[in-house]
Amino acid sequence: MNIKSLLLGSAAALAVVSGAQAADAIVAAEPEPMEYVRVCDAFGTGYFYIPGTETCLQIGGWVRAQVDFGPNADSGSDNDYDMRASALVTVDAKSDTELGVLQSFIALESDISVDNEAQGFYADEAFLALGGFKAGWFYNWWDLGIAGETDGLGNQTEFVSFSYTYTAESFSIGASVDEIQSIVTDTADIGLSGTVTATFGPASIAILGGYDFDVEEGAVRAIGSAEVGPGTFYLAGIYSSDPSAYYDDAEWSVAASYAFKATDKLTVTPGIQYWDNLEDGGAYVGGDKLKYGITLDYKPVENLLARLSVQYDDVTDNPYGYFRLQRAF
């Protein structure tokens, strides 16, 4: 009787343990908490919060295919055309701080053509900013121009710089210390640039100056724009004391263009520019130059641009330009 009771008790105990183990095997684990990506609307569209932070991130860029045409358009083979492609990827991170918006920006570009075997990405821009302060590799105010593709209003337009811009509602003023490339020795030197801009309803004006400490020469530029009829009229003028890193085409130049909004999808921009006392061999030696052309911008769908630029100048004495397809994101 004792042996029988012992066997029955052992069997019952094994059944209880086996049942407990089986129950444990089918119990589902608690799901880990998940943090979904949140939209950030503090800095415009396209930003989202980096999970676990209060930093807003935006990823953008474009992909471009282009055909250049004109005399020696392809410098590698002396062809009158050159087909090429390029891509740009941007990463923009922003967050609010007690000192203003803290920003870091990276733009990586790659240019692809038969003559360009190295198709890796390079830094088109890389800078950080806090409030009105900005430091790094970025485009200077000299890169800004008027509408269309006819004008040439700057020489070197991108530098490693430290700048500050004060911005009010309709007024801004800025100054920048730039590491320039010497036009004499091709080495690094220092330049100083500054700008003042103002907006008056449908009109605006921007005055810009740059001084090259290497050659001890400078240039001053003014650009004005105003809404006129179904488009915007632009007028620019430049004076350069002598060739410098900021401007070295001519002592004087005047440019104008009119961006005519033909339809919601098509913009037609004729432009013209005149140079007086042209540069040659690092000095202004006289002579003049006239250039005129037209730029057609057609946007068949959102974020897709088809552009045709046709230009002519009385020095080259041949038409030239490009056709471009570009998809932005």
Beta strands, count: 18
What is the H/E order? Answer: HEEEEEEEEEEEEEEEEEE
| Biggest β-sheet description | 16 strands, antiparallel, barrel
Adjacency order of strands in the biggest sheet: 3-4-5-6-7-8-9-10-11-12-13-14-15-16-17-18
- By secondary-structure content and strand pairing, the structural class works out as mainly beta
Contiguous helical run count? 1
Q: Characterize the overall form.
A: globular
Q: Quick check: average pLDDT?
A: 91
Distance between the ends: 85 Å
Residue windows where pLDDT falls under 50 for at least 5 positions = 11-17
The helix fraction, in percent, is under 10%
What does this structure look like?
There is one protein chain. 22% of the residues are buried. 7% of the residues lie in helices and 61% in strands. The protein has a 16-stranded antiparallel barrel. The protein is mainly beta and 329 residues long.
